[in-house]
Structures are given as C-alpha cells and as structure tokens.
# Entry
Amino acid sequence: MKNFSVSYLFLGGEGPAKPFRCPGALHQARWMAKAVYCLKLQMLKSQLSLTGREKAGVERVALFVALVYCKQWHEAPISVKAPLNDVLFLEILKTYPDQTIAKAAEQALRRHLWYVSEENAGLAFFDSRIDVEEKKQMVKALDKPASKKELKQLEGKKMTMSSSLSSFVTSKTRSFFQKLDADEGFLAKDPALWEEDDRFKDARKWALGLRVVNDAAERGIALVQRYLGSTKSAAQEKYLLQLVHHHRKLVGREKKEDLQKKAF
# Structure
C-alpha cells in the first residue's frame, strides 16, 4: 500500500505528518520500489541537487506511476479483472500524452499477455464491470471452434485496444470451468440474472481464489535463486525448496534476534 499513500500525497492529497523513510539499496529492488522512490524524489526535488535532465526524467516517471500504473499494479492480483484490465491498459497507453513512456510501457505489457488465452478468458465471465451485452456475446462464443494450433502463448500483437473479450472466447474456454469444477448451468441464463444464481456465486468464489502467476512466480524465483547450488542433485534441491517453503509458513519472517528472545 506504500505506493498508494505516496501517490496520493504526490497528487496533492493530505496525509499524516510522517517523514519519508530513507531509500534502501536499489540493485535488487522491484520496479514498484523504484517507482515509489521516483515519487519521493519529485516531491523533494527542491531539496536535491539534480540536473535538468534528471528532474525531467523523474517527473515523467512519477506522473506515469501516479496517474496510470498505480491502479493497474494494485488490481493485478485480482484474477477475474485481468482480461479486461489488459484491454483497458492498452487503451490508456494509446492516449497517454507522453508517448515515449507509453510505448515503452506497452512493449513491456505485451511481453506479459501470454496468459490471455482461450482458456483463461473464462475469468472475464466473473468480472462485474463487463456489461450484459458483452457477456451474452461471450456465451455465444463458447460454441466457436477452438484454435487449430496449440499455442504456448498468444501473440501480444493480436491484442489491441479495440479487442472485445468475446473475441478470445472459444469452445476451449469451457475447460476453464471444468478445471474449477464449476457447474456451468448459470451460462444458460440471462447474464443479468447471474448474480442471483448460486452456481455462479460458487464458481466466482473459486475464480477469485486463484493466485495470480506473477505474484507466486516472483516469490518462487527468489527462493530458487537463493538456494541454487546448495545441493548435489535436483532431487535434493527440490526437497530443500519444499522444506524452506514449509518452514517459512510455520515460522514466518521473524528475525534471528526475535527467535533468540523466544528461545531464552
């Protein structure tokens, strides 16, 4: 939530009179941490010795983060919003005034559109922001033949700001409901009545419980990188990773000194 509070202050909001925490090392910081630093730099620029080029660059990044990226980042873990958010994000980038930054952001976004597949398009059926008429078209598209070619990922170039979500739905989308073990009976009803259907409610609950790939993957990659080479075989490495993951769930993120205090 740090990015939200700093973005709010940057845009002129009022908050508690608390000093900013000193930035830490950036060499391993995630993008959002660097984005928050840019927001702070922009607010404190009168107290810093920055060149004209640095000031301009910081301002451009800060504006993009506060006006565009912050909302997208916050909603990224909400699985059912992902398909529509990607279409809307592309639309925003096409109309964003600073096209140099917008094009760089679009290029990065298109590298992550691989999951907008025929199967995962099923997530959009549970997005309350999508109107009834579009959902009717999505239901009709469930009878459309699946792609003949089995794609590991969709080509990002095929997705544009004018893409309708129904264009990604095919008969293969039904496998999404099958994997959720969801009763598809609600699909036979008018989408306007889905919210009252218990079958829809149960399926949406399971869909909302899905973990977004990037969140889980980043933690998994960090874990593998930390213990890579610590064992002599792949089997031992797999066991070690499972053991560390289990230990973290039991103990949490307590520091060594905290555990020592408990022990003595």
Observations:
- The CA atoms of residues 178 and 209 lie 16 Å apart.
- The first helix runs from residue 2 to 10.
